[in-house]
Amino acid sequence: MTLTTKEKIFQAALDLFSQKGFSGVSIREITRQVGIKESSLYNHFKNKEAILEAILTHFRVDFSKTLPPVDSLDKILSTTEPETFLKTGHSNFKQYMEDPQGQKIWRLLQIEQFREPFAREIILKDFFGETVDFLEIVFQKMIAMKKIKAFDPKILAIEYQYPVFSLLAEYNILKFDGKDTTQVESRLNQHIDFFLEVIRNE
Amino acid sequence: MTLTTKEKIFQAALDLFSQKGFSGVSIREITRQVGIKESSLYNHFKNKEAILEAILTHFRVDFSKTLPPVDSLDKILSTTEPETFLKTGHSNFKQYMEDPQGQKIWRLLQIEQFREPFAREIILKDFFGETVDFLEIVFQKMIAMKKIKAFDPKILAIEYQYPVFSLLAEYNILKFDGKDTTQVESRLNQHIDFFLEVIRNE
DNA sequence: TCATTATACTAACAAACGTTAGATATTTGA
DNA sequence: TCAAATATCTAACGTTTGTTAGTATAATGA
After folding, report:
1. Least confident window among A60-64, B14-18, B190-194
2. Which fold has domain B1-45?
3. Which residue is nearest to nucleotide D17 (CA to C1')?
4. 30-49 in chain A: CB under 8 A from chain B
5. Are the C-beta atoms of A130 and A184 separated by less than 8 Å?
6. pTM (2 decimals)?
């Protein structure tokens, strides 16, 4: 699986931007990593800004694939216990966390969120918004099926997901320094267990 | 209350770094905002890096003052209900959130966390670590006083504080665009209420 | 008061920046 | 097979970068 020059530029830029930020990386640094002269880059991207834009756009499209479609939820939830459902979701999430590409995109969004309006939009809408909206529907359905206590599903969505975001932030910092992440991972498990205990219908 | 030139440089640098990041701001941009020539800056700071270092160090000292001393906890907790204690803490926290200086430092830490090891250390130790350690002691004492249910105090600390970090991140993005933040603020209140309901000792 | 110290200025530096023009080589499609 | 399109190269451009040297002015302390 060989990459085109454009893809190599994309990857090198993502790698460098996610460490030093957009302003901290030069065209020459990117092309040096790819193995071409700096002028050649302009055959593939209009300018430096266009590389970042391509990365952010690609991520936006990519992220929308990680959640199961809402139409299939009734079927899934009728055959799956809340515990299994959440733990499966956690497993998917963990996979995303451990993927180096996912870590780079997360870091890039963190670094650029206050310089790049598009990054803010992705964090707010795709990251916070979409996940919470999805979970709200999930918990609403679980309540209708009397599988969990009848709390406000929106509140449940936040109570479940927001700690996960913080744990993910902590995880990515530790991972960046190559430090041990088992504690954060066990905290994520503890969080899910705690949450399940709280919402359980006796 | 007039500022010295050094303080003006400090403030201008914090202001600009928190919007564009360290690499995105030039010495000339800082000195233009202060109203001096770029060479004059070097009478106050050794180089550009030293300004960032001064900002991060100042924040570290500053942040350690926001939590009440552990020695005074027994006295406070014996006369204060959990609900009042947490809501007072929330009020202090909100004040910090609404302070423009606090927002700038938060943004700076977010932007620089992967370029600057010191920023990572502050986020991990001061932000995550210290707050959770403090809350663990608080909940441990509340449990000993039989004021709340006997959950693992460390888990309670995380369940309480980690959603607050995520809400704070969301709050700061909205605030940066001048958008409405009442929804995030009400979510913070809902979180506290939910948490109190869960840990209440019947 | 006067020497010293601190702070501001002008001017310049070498290096790095993003980007372009134009020549050369490689790949593609009729 | 050969013209057209695409990708790479060398070389250079005008700016901006962080920083320094040297000089003038203002504040400080004996």
Report:
1. A60-64
2. Arc Repressor Mutant, subunit A (1.10.10)
3. B26
4. none
5. no
6. 0.93
